[in-house]
Amino acid sequence: MKILALDTSGLVASVALWEDGLIRAEYSMNDKKMHSQTIVPMLNALKQLTNLDMTTLDALAVAAGPGSFTGLRIGSATVKGLAFALDKPIVPVPTLDGLAYNLYGTDKLVCPLMDARRNQVYAGLYEFVKNGTHYDMKAVKEQCAIHIEEILENCNEKGREVVFLGDGFSVFSDIIEKQIKVPYTIAPAHMNRQRAASVASLAEIYFQQGRTETAQSHVPEYLRLSQAEREKLEHGSENGAC
Q1: Whole-angstrom distance, CA of residue 135 vs CA of residue 158
Q2: How far apart are CA 140 and CA 72, in angstroms?
Q3: Which end of the chain is more exposed for a tag (fewer CB within 10 A), N or C?
Q4: Gap between the Cα atoms of 181 and 155, Å rounded
Q5: Are residues 134 and 205 both part of a single domain?
Q6: 213 and 166, same domain (yes or no)
C-alpha cells in the first residue's frame, strides 16, 4: 500500500510518502515561505528522488483542517487536483489528530495547540491506549476552536500530566504557565510542529476504516469563519441595525 501525504495547515509545509508500513521519504520546510511557492517543488523533488510512479498510489492524504485558511486551501486544491488526475481517493486527516500522532505511544495526555487568533486556539486532547503490540489514539476531546483558558480548564479537570505541542504554545505560554495546575512538558523541536509523516501514518489507518473522500467531495474543515467572512457578517449586522 502506498500513500502520498501533504500538510500545509500551518507555517510548516510538509510532504511524505508512506509505503507498506514505512515512511520512504519526508520533506518539510518551516521557513515562512508561501506554501503556494514550495509545495509543488517539494512534491516534485520527492517524486524524482524516490522514482515515484504516481499511478501506483493507493490514496492521497491531506491535513484537512483546521489551520491557516490560505494554507488549507492550497493543500486541498493540490490534493484534489492530483486525485482528479489519478482517479484516487483522498484521506482527510484532522490537523490536530496529525499533530497529536507525533507523540505516538506516550502515557501522557497530549494537547496540540494552534494559534487561532482572538485569544483562541485550535486544540484537542488525546491519549494513547495499548492494544496488543500497538497503541490506538483516542480523542479525549475532539479538535475544536476554543478559548485558551477553556482548554486549560479541560486539562486541569483530567488531572493528568500533559504534553503540549504546536505553535499555539509559544503564543500563550504566559497564560499556560499561570493557569495550568497539572504537570506539563513541551514536545521536542523535531515533534513540535506538523509533519506529513504523521498524516501519512494516520491516513493508512483511516483508509482501512473506510474514511475516504472523492476529489469532488473533499473540502477543508475550517471549524470557524475566516476573518473576511466574520467582518462581512459584522458589517451586514451593522447595516441591518441602521
Answers
A1: 20
A2: 25
A3: C
A4: 8
A5: no
A6: no
